[in-house]
Amino acid sequence: NPSIAPREADDRTHIRIEWWTVASDLLPFCVLILLVIGSLYSGVVTPTESAALGCCLSVMVARIWGQIDLPALRRALRKTVLSSGSILFVVYAAFLFSYAVGLSGLADELARWVSQAGVSRLGFLLIVILSLSVIGCFVDSMGMMVITVPILLPSLAHFNINVVWFGILIVLLVELGQITPPMGMNLFVIRNITGEPLGSVIRGTMPFYLIYLLLIALIIVFPGLVLWLPGSG
Hints:
Strand content: under 5%
Shape: globular
Largest sheet: none
Number of helices: 10
Helix content: over 70%
Structural class: mainly alpha
Number of strands: 0
């Protein structure tokens, strides 16, 4: 049919135009990510400098391809200051708590109690997983690490737990705690962004919750998944 060929050509042209439109929209963000992550992992900048670079490049992208103006930038800066202030307050309080724990000797007492109680390695890890999942419902990620790591660190030697491996476990548990119902902090962040009911947000995060649990189980059963790369160096 002679009419089919022109129609197919029009469809292919339309698809190419749509593909180019999508690619051109994504290109600035891909370049932004590559510059920020690339400069960080190449050692050109420090993490703090990388964050500053990302902020400056984001403003440039928003100004060139977006609709940012001075009032919008002022609102963004105000929200950033408020969010940073609340986070830093939690971190400061957590550092004070960590300092008090060190002075009181609570971490050493906990390590001594663990060694005398006959808790198994798996039992200790289950207690850590449960505790940090609950703490993550109420405390920011940085606060979680500052509060819990000084207390748990002395007990690692008793169970012959690798510090690098335990650090990866803590990171996974921190991320898990932020989506743990009913008070995980990221749940409320997602609700504010999307406007969806909290119950809907919790149901939507359940697959990610299960994925985190699977990752935690895998690194417990197969520690080499974490340690092979540091060991190869």
